[in-house]
Amino acid sequence: MLQSSSRDQLEKDQLQNSFNSLNQKKLELENRVKDLTAEKSQLQSNFNSLSQEKLELETRVRDVTAEKSQLQSFLSQEKLELETRVRDLTAEKNQWKTRVSDLTTEKSQLQSNFNSLSQEKLELETRVRDVTAEKSQLQSFLSQEKLELETRVRDLTAEKNQWKTRVRDLTTEKSQLQSNFNSLSQEKLELETRVRDVTAEKSQLQSFLSQEKLELETRVRDLTAEKNQWKTRVSDLTTEKSQLQSNFNSLSQEKLELETRVRDLTAEKSQLQSNFNSLSQEKLELETRVRDLSAEKSQLQNRLNSLSQKKLELETEIPKLSEQATGCLFTSNELKSWSDSRQYCRDHGADLIIINTEEKQRNISSLVKERVWIGLSDTEQEGNMTWVDNSTLTQGFWFKGEPNNADGNEDCIEIIPGYPFLNNWNDLPCSEKRKGICETSSSTPKCYDIS
Ligand SMILES: [Ca+2]
Ligand SMILES: [Ca+2]
Fold first, then answer.
1. Torsion of CA 381, 382, 387, 390, to 10 degrees
2. pLDDT at residue 3, rounded to an integer
3. Which ligand is nearest the CA of 412, by number?
4. Where are the domains of the chain?
5. DSSP labels for 148-187?
6. Residue 445: what pLDDT?
7. Omega cis (within 30) before 403
8. How many helices and strands (H and E) does the chain possess?
9. Low-confidence ranges of the chain (pLDDT < 70)
10. CB 23 within 8 A of CB 304
11. Alpha carbon distance 421, 358 (integer Å)
12. Which residues form a coiled coil (predicted)?
């Protein structure tokens, strides 16, 4: 019966220790779960702010891309309009050039016609002069001939008819020549009229061509000025386009950097997500372990409860058992030195208690409520612990570090309640005041309660 209760007690102590360490471990795990939860919240918060930042960057990239498309569209439209206008102006200029060339050719043709007409007129004038000279000669010759004929008519009447015939022939020839002369004169007049007309026409053409040329030159000047303005505007637009291209390039560069940053952030987010997942996994494992430990704790608690119940039952058994095993136990009402306490026990037919088994140590430890003397000392010889019946100590239930014979003056042994039942002995000076546990033989009828 005693051995069984002792084993239960041992088991109960071990369970108590296990329970304490498990409690401690549970607290540590709970703290670790709290820390991990806080760390997880921090990671989630970081992840949210990174997601927000990523969204803002994406919105900015979209805006920049839209602005770039608008600028490109505007520049393309403007460039197409300018190219169309330059093509139109170039075609118009070519038409004007063709017209100037045609007019120049026409003018050259007219000049050539005019020159040939002038040459023809000169030749006609020369011919008219020659015919006139011939006529004069003929007149002169005819007058001379008439005179000679008149003179000779008289003399040459025979010859007169011949000469008359000849004169008639000559007169006819003369009429013919006169007619020729008249027609030539008429022709000359017509030619002169035509020359005048041609001259007037030439002057008009020259005036018209000069006017036309001046207008064309003015228009060419205007067109050249306008072309220069367009060239300036094209140059400005080209410069503006280069500036926009430069802006676009820097924006593209910035966009690339942003994309790189987004990629880095995404990788970092993936890493964080991975960390978060592993932490979540670890948290789940810890929760599982906490659940297991809680279940184990509940089992231990149940076992502890049943053990406590058993302990209570056993405690009710102890006085009876103590009485059977050791006889009666009692203490003094006053605090005394070890020697005075022993004397008190002797005065009451007992002696200070001898504890020579583990079961008795447990029973006594469960009963004491204050520091008490027991019947053990090394007063006779330092380090040689001896019971009051002069038997030598075989098994001690010392507190950790005891006996230490502090100041070389600790020779009497006490039990300190509250320490583990099997480790609660201490040596201290014998003059210290304690109650002592007295133990009678089982034959002594009267017992005192030491509690
Ligand atoms: Ca000592
Ligand atoms: Ca001591």
1. -10
2. 61
3. 1
4. 29-262, 327-451
5. HHHHHHHHTHHHHHHHHHHHHHHHHHHHHHHHHHHHHHHH
6. 46
7. yes
8. 4, 7
9. 1-4, 149, 153, 156, 159-160, 163, 167, 317-327, 442-451
10. no
11. 9
12. 12-324
pLDDT at 449: 52
Nearest ligand for residue 428 CA: 2
Residue 398 Cα to ligand 1 midpoint, Å, equals 13
Closest listed ligand to the CA of 380: 1
- Which residues sit with Cβ closer than 5 angstroms to ligand 1, an ion? 378, 405, 411
- The DSSP bridge partners found for residue 414 are 373, 426
Q: How far is 268 from 274, CA to CA, in rounded Å?
A: 10
The pLDDT of residue 320 is 60
Residue whose tokens read 């005041």? 433
* Cα Rg of the chain (Å, integer): 76
Q: Ligand 2 centroid to 377 CA: how many Å?
A: 12
| pLDDT of the residue at 450 | 54
Separation of alpha carbons 415 and 362, rounded Å: 11
Tokens 């088991």 sit on residue? 11
What distance, in Å, lies between the first and last C-alpha atoms of the chain?
A: 23
Q: What is the pTM of this model?
A: 0.32
Q: For the segment 51-98, what is each residue's pLDDT rounded down to a tens digit?
A: 899 899 898 889 888 988 888 888 889 888 888 888 998 899 899 898
User: Can you give the pLDDT at residue 205?
Assistant: 78
- Pick among 3.30.1780.10, 3.40.50.2300, 3.40.50.2000, 3.10.100.10: CATH of 327-451: 3.10.100.10
Task: Residue count of the chain, please give it.
Answer: 451
The DSSP element (H or E) to which 289 belongs, if any, is helix 157-326
Distance 129 CA to ligand 2 centre (A): 178
Give the position of tokens 């659940």: 291
Instruction: Give CA–CA dist 282/267, Å, rounded.
Output: 22
SS3 389: coil
Tokens of 141: 């010759």
SS3 226: helix
Tokens 């820390």 locate to 35
Tell me, letter by letter, the H, E, C secondary structure of 323-343.
HHHHCCEEECCCCECHHHHHH
